[in-house]
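Hello again, I could really use a second opinion on something today. Take your time with it, there's no hurry, and the full record follows here:

___
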Amino acid sequence: MIPVVSVVMTVYNRELYLAKAIESVLSQTRKDFELLVWDDGSTDRSITIAQSYAKQDKRIRVILAEHQGQGQALKAAFAAARGIYIGQVDSDDFLAPTALEETAALLDVYPQVGLVYTDYVVIDEKGWILGEGERCQIPYSKDRLLIDFMIFHFRMIRRSAYEQVGGIDESFESIEDYELCLRLSEAAEIQHLKKALYYYRTHNDNLSLNKQVDQIFLSHTAIKQALQRRGLSDQFESHLHIIGKFSLRKIGSD
């Protein structure tokens, strides 16, 4: 039986957080889903952890692949997903129990909506809450998406809308989600569910922290392409501002 909802989780060496991420999906109030765990060539215990959960719950599929990087892994995982709605959970984050139920319900009711996104809470390595996510506090608009990525987490995407815009472009490695959302905003309505249903973990191995410079330049490219697609490149141009911040610390201090 084809599931209504697919939850995609790409994994690369996330043994510290993976169990919590998987358990948060299994604890959802909406039960008609599949969880697709795509392992991108992990060398730690991530595969063992994922397979142990798959043995206990038939809704979990684990696919093992060679290491290709986030963009290609996520595109392949979306292609392998079978649901009519697709949500993504990062393997170091986790969901609130009603995340699937509440986001999918909006897609059920509003066929013109191609993507629903929620608010999120920021947590640290140990799971302590640091505060509300800043991005989701920015009001959504198709135009403002050109300069602010407020569609951060959690996102539930209608498969037909995803396929209509051509899916993930893996050449935008590390900002493939932002570039995809720009194209989705041009083809379908996007709805903001103003509830914190996602827990975003910050730690020293965050992809977004380790590739910040790459993300900045790739985002600039994505914005310029969006302006061209929207017929606005003769009216607006994207200007990139990089601001450096420096501090001094006494040698030998903690």
